Amino acid sequence: MKHPSNQEFFAYWDEKRAGERAPDRSEIEPGAVRELLGDIFVLSYDSTAGYPFRVAGTRICALLGRDLKDRSFSALFIEDSRREIEDIITVVTEEMLAAVAGITATSADGAPVHLELLLLPFNNRAHAPMSLTGLLAPFAGGHSVLREFKLTTWRYLGHQPPQRLVPRAIRKLKLARGLMVYEGLR
Q1: Which of 17, 57, 66, 120 could covalently link to 38 via disulfide, CB atoms 3.0 to 4.6 Å apart?
Q2: How far apart are CA 135 and CA 6, in angstroms?
Q3: How many CA atoms lie within 13 A of 90 on its CB side?
Q4: What pTM did the predictor assign?
């Protein structure tokens, strides 16, 4: 992660999850990340609608030149990158892994603009629609409306809490001599 806003939002999200795989959506307090709100968004996990924006910060809306509520997130990307970003969103939401991606967009005057995208899962709750949050920030300011987003790089942040061994598994490990394979101790 290179962008300071993404680093700050990830640190806040990581603190709120308190050792779990992801925090609950209700645990994210907008006041705690007030300076970042313009770059933060929430997506609905709805593949048929292209993962529409539920909430989008003012700076993101300004970068795209329109209100983004209920508009498709994946439609921002060129055809070659659309399937990849949809796959990343699926992994983030279903596997509860954070992801960071480099994006290149085109400004109205044709100049390339480099951005960093952070996608973070929320804890899934029964009988509640699935969603995820993220932050999209350009590396330089003063751009006109952006279009043609292209995914350039991405990686998953496998920052999982350490697994705790239950006492029964520890006893088995103390008795073990030589090579033993235990399935399911993940």
Answers
A1: 57
A2: 6
A3: 9
A4: 0.83
